[in-house]
C-alpha cells in the first residue's frame, strides 16, 4: 500500500448492521471514510449482496469522485467477482485487511461507533427511523473538527472540484455485460 498524500487516494469501506428494520426495509449501512480527509459517506441498504454494494459504491463515487484505492475487510461481498470487476472497470486497487485484525480498518470502525451513537441519540423514541436522520447525522459529523487532521472534513469540497473519474459507466454495473 502507498503513503496517503491526497484526498480520495484511499478510502476504507465497511458495513454496519443489522440495525432496526426501517419502513423501507433497510437494515444495513455501507460506510466509506477517506483516509486523507476523514470525509465520510453512509448509504442505507436492504441487503448486503455484492450487487447492492456495487450499486451503492457507484452512487457514492459518481457524486464525490472515484478513489484510487479501496480498503476493506475480507467479507464475502467485498471479495466477490462482481466487486472485482467493478474495481477493475473503475481503475481502483482493492486492498484487504488482515483477517481477525479489525484495527487495520480502525478509521471506519471509529466512524461506525460515532455514527451509531449519534443515530441512537436522535432515534431514541423510534429506532427504526434511523434512515430518516442519516443524512443530517452525516452533515453534523462532517462539521466536527477531526482530532487526527485538525480540520473538519467538509473542507473536502474545496478539493472536490478536481475529483477523479474513471471507467465507462453508461449503465449501472449490474446491467452491463462484463467480458473477461
TrEMBL record:
It holds the Pfam family rve. PROSITE patterns: INTEGRASE. Residues 3-161 form the Integrase catalytic domain. It comes from the Eukaryota. GO terms for molecular function: nucleic acid binding. One of its GO terms (biological process) is DNA integration. This is Gypsy retrotransposon integrase-like protein 1. It comes from Elysia marginata.
Amino acid at each position: 500500500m502507498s503513503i496517503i498524500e491526497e484526498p480520495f487516494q484511499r478510502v476504507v469501506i465497511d458495513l454496519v448492521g443489522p440495525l432496526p428494520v426501517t419502513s423501507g426495509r433497510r437494515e444495513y449501512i455501507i460506510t466509506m471514510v477517506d483516509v486523507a480527509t476523514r470525509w465520510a459517506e453512509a448509504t442505507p441498504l436492504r441487503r448486503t449482496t455484492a450487487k447492492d454494494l456495487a450499486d451503492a459504491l457507484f452512487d457514492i463515487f459518481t457524486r464525490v469522485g472515484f478513489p484510487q484505492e479501496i480498503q476493506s475487510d475480507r467479507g464475502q461481498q467485498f471479495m466477490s467477482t462482481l466487486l472485482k470487476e467493478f474495481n477493475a472497470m473503475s481503475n481502483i486497487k482493492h486492498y484487504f485487511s488482515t483477517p481477525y485484525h479489525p484495527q487495520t480498518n480502525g478509521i471506519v470502525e471509529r466512524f461506525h461507533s460515532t455514527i451509531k451513537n449519534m443515530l441512537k441519540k436522535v432515534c431514541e423514541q423510534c429506532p427504526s427511523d434511523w434512515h430518516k436522520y442519516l443524512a443530517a447525522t452525516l452533515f453534523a459529523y462532517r462539521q466536527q473538527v477531526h482530532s487526527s487532521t485538525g480540520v473538519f472534513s467538509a473542507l473536502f469540497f474545496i478539493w472536490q472540484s478536481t475529483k477523479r473519474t474513471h471507467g465507462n459507466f453508461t449503465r449501472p454495473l449490474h446491467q452491463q455485460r462484463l467480458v473477461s
